[in-house]
């Protein structure tokens, strides 16, 4: 068989307080994958932190930069959080990712462990659906100083401190004042992030191919403050007017503490994350399965 992808990186779920997969199980899956891919004729590399934390050997290791320059595919064994993290890091290199679900929900890790080889082998031979996902580029400005910049695949969230009251946020889009919002916070989400925190805050679901972003207030003081769908060309500026211990989160994986007057500027990133799905994959099938639509119906 002539493989479409010959240099393949294997990435495992890193240890965390929310890790639902025991290290022994993750080690077994990645070890089996390594052996199987080698039998197919692929050159296999292990992401170095995954190899160290899970206790893997049997293949050379690479850091993320090395994967970006030497691999043409990354297989991510874990949950959506693992895919988000490596999707962001590999996006500048254009390396596509295939998600193997070892987490809880799996909106973007859509291959189940019990279907692994049956689903993967056709994909490695070129039979797949290619899915480009919009990312966000965010900057935190303190006066004239850019104190932080980050990428996000799901969302940028400005929210209040854990033990404090509402924050007041001045929001503008493309230089036009929108509103001063008093709320627990504000979410700027991509279509990918529309199934995450944005959904729990009452935001709409956006089809991934849609050129749009969604701005969702979190528990707003004024109930007429509703979710707003914006063009993905928009630049959104969120200024902290009042509120203690506020912060900006980027995919809930990096954090910036905010002071009064700080501005969070959000726009579409120049990079896209690239996911590969099995042939015949449908976003609507994923929604129906993960959100349990039509259960009990005929």
Q: Brief description of this entry?
A:
The protein has helices spanning 23-40, 48-54, 64-70, 80-90, 116-124, 197-200, 283-290, and strands spanning 7-12, 43-47, 61-62, 73-78, 97-101, 111-112, 128-142, 145-152, 155-159, 167-173, 176-183, 185-189, 212-218, 228-231, 236-242, 247-250, 254-257, 263-278. With 298 residues, it is of the alpha/beta class.
Structure description:
The protein is α/β, with parallel strands linked by helices. Helices cover 21% and strands 39% of the residues. The chain has two domains: 120 residues, 3-Layer(aba) Sandwich (Rossmann fold), CATH 3.40.50.10330; 137 residues, Probable inorganic polyphosphate/atp-NAD kinase, domain 2 (Tumour Suppressor Smad4), CATH 2.60.200. The protein is built from seven helices and 18 strands. The N and C termini lie far apart (42 Å).
Features:
elongated; Tumour Suppressor Smad4; 39% strand; 298 residues; 6-stranded antiparallel sheet; alpha/beta; Rossmann fold; 6-stranded parallel sheet; 21% helix; 7 helices
Instruction: Return the CATH class of the largest domain.
Output: Mainly Beta
The total tally of domains equals 2
Percentage of residues assigned to helices: 10-25%
Question: Going by CATH, what is the homologous superfamily of the largest domain?
Answer: Probable inorganic polyphosphate/atp-NAD kinase, domain 2
The low-confidence parts are none
Within the largest sheet, what's the order of strands? 3-2-1-4-5-6
Sequence of secondary-structure elements: EHEHEHEHEEHEEEEEEHEEEEEEH
Number of strands: 18
Q: What value does the average pLDDT take?
A: 91
Sketch the major β-sheet: 6 strands, parallel
Task: Please state roughly what percent of the residues sit in beta strands, choosing from under 5%, 5-15%, 15-25%, 25-35%, 35-45% or over 45%.
Answer: 35-45%
Number of helices: 7
> Structural class, please?
alpha/beta
Query: What is the CATH topology descriptor of the largest domain?
Result: Tumour Suppressor Smad4
Shape designation: elongated
Q: What's the architecture of the largest domain in CATH terms?
A: Sandwich
């Amino acid at each position: 068989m002539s493989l479409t992808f010959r240099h393949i990186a294997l990435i495992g779920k890193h240890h965390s307080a929310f890790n639902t997969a025991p290290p022994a199980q993750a080690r077994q899956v990645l070890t089996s994958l390594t052996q199987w891919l080698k039998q197919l004729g692929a050159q296999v590399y292990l992401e170095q932190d995954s190899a160290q934390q899970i206790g893997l050997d049997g293949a050379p290791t690479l850091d993320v930069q090395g994967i970006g320059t030497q691999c043409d595919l990354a297989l991510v064994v874990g949950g959506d959080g693992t895919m988000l993290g490596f999707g962001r890091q590999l996006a500048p290199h254009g390396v596509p990712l295939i998600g193997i679900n070892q987490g809880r929900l799996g909106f973007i890790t859509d291959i189940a462990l019990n279907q692994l080889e049956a689903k993967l082998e056709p994909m490695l031979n070129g039979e797949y659906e290619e899915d480009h996902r919009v990312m966000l580029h965010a900057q935190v400005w303190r006066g004239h100083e850019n104190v932080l910049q980050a990428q996000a695949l799901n969302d940028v969230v400005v929210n209040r401190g854990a033990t404090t009251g509402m924050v007041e946020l001045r929001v503008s889009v493309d230089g036009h004042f929108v509103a001063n919002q008093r709320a627990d916070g504000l979410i700027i989400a991509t279509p990918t992030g529309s199934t995450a925190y944005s959904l729990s805050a009452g935001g709409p679901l956006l089809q991934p191919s849609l050129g749009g972003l969604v701005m969702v207030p979190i528990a707003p003081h004024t109930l007429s403050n509703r979710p707003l769908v914006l063009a993905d060309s928009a630049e959104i500026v969120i200024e902290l007017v009042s509120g203690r211990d506020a912060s900006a989160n980027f995919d809930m994986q990096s954090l910036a503490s905010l002071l009064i007057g700080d501005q969070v500027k959000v726009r579409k990133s120049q990079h896209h994350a690239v996911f590969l799905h099995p042939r015949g994959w449908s976003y609507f099938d994923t929604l129906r399965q993960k959100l349990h639509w039509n259960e009990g119906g005929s």
